[in-house]
Amino acid sequence: MANMISNFTSQPDLSNKHIRPLENAGDLDPLLERIGDSKYVLLGEASHGTHEYYTWRAEISKRLIEEKGFSFVAVEGDWPDCFKINRWVKNFPGSENSIKEVLQEFKRWPTWMWANWEIAAFAKWMRKHNENLENPEKVGFYGLDVYSLWESMETIVKYLEKEDPETAVLARQAADCFEPYRKNDSYVTAYRNMKPRCRNEVVQLLSEVRLQTHRYDHESEAGLNAELNSLVMKNAEKYYEAMAHFNSSSWNVRDSHMVETLNTLMDYHGDAAKVIIWEHNTHIGDARATDMAAHGMHNVGQLVRQQHNDEGVVLVGFGSYEGSVIAGEFWGGKMTKMELPKAIEGSVEKLLHQLGKKNKLLIFDEDSPITEIFSSRMGHRAVGVVYDPHRERGNYVQSIMSQRYDAFLYIDKTKGLHPLHLTPDGHLTPDTYPFGI
C-alpha cells in the first residue's frame, strides 16, 4: 500500500487527473459527467451532524435538478414530517407560512438531523425553483424511513375519516390494535406482547388504500400520502418485531422499507423520474464492500444497485479528517457540539489527508490508479447520532472504497451543522449563507 501511494503521489499529472480539487460548485463537473443519464443518485454523509455534508449535498442536488431534470429528493427521514416539507416547497394550499414553522414540527430525536439551518436554506431554494412550475413538474422532498408508526397512524385516520369513511373504519381498527403499545414507543420494546392480528389489520388497510388512491386526487398528492403512511404502519410493525428479538434483521427490515418506499415514489412520478437520495454512508454505500455482508446485512445502496443498475445508479460517499460534529452522548441525550478527532492511522481519511490538506473529489473509474489504491479494505469513519469521540476506533467500517462507492467527496476539516433553534454564526439566516462556510 505504501509503495502504491508513493508511486501515485510521485506523478503530479497523474495525481491531479484522478484526485480533483473540491472548492466550489464548479468543481463538481467531473461528478456530473460521471452521473450522466443515471436515474438514481445516492448522496451519503459520514455523520448526521456535519455542516459541509449538507451543503455539498445541496449543491450537487441543485445542479442535478437544474441541469439534469431530477424529480425529487428522498431522505433518511420520517414520511409525515418530510411530507410537510414537500408541501411547503411545492407551496400547496394549507402549508405553513415559513420553512422555520415546518421544521419546528420535527419532534422526534434527533431533531437536529432535519430541523437545521442548512435544510432550511435548501428548502427555500427548492420553493423558489418550483414557484413557476405546474404541480406535476415541481421537485418534491420525501422521507423514506420507517420510524413514524404513531404519526402515520394519526395522519391516515384523520384523513380517511374526512375523505373516505368506509376505508377509515379499517384505519381505526388498525390504530386501535396498536394503541395499547404506544406508551412503549421505543425501537426495542414497542412490539413485545403485541397481538399477531395487528399485522393483518395494517396489511388489509394498505391493500384497501392502494385500491382507493384514485379517489383522493382532489387534494395534491393525497393518495400518495395515504398509501405511504399505510406502508410505514405495515413495515414499522415488522421493524419493531425484529428489534424486540435483538438481531440484525431489524436493519434489513428498515433498509428494505426505505427501498420499497423509494420504488413506490418512482412509480408515482412516472417512467421519466429521477431521484436524489440523502442518507448516511452506512445506508448508501454498497454493503457488499464492507463487513456488513459477513453479518447477513444489506442496505439501500446494495438493493438499489441490484434492482435498478440498468437504469443508472451512482453512489457518492463523504468523509473528513477532523473538525467538529453535532451528536448526543446517548440515545435521546442532549444535543452537543463535539470534537471530531483526527482520523486514525491506516484509515481512508488519514490517507487522503496525507495526500494534501485540501478538499478532494475522487471518481472511481475502471482502470484508474485511484481505483486500484482503494481496492483494498481500509477503515472508513462512520459517526452516528450517538457518538463518543474517546472511543474513536470503534467508529471505523472496513471498506473497499472503490466498490462501496462510485465517487467520494473528502473534506479535510468540517464543522457541526446549525440546529434550527440556534442562531447561526454571525446571526446569518438561510438566505445569507455563503456556499461552503
Automatic annotation (TrEMBL):
Pfam families: Erythro_esteras (PF05139). InterPro entries: Emycin_Estase, Hydrolase/PRTase-associated, UCP036794_erythomycin. This is Erythromycin esterase family protein.
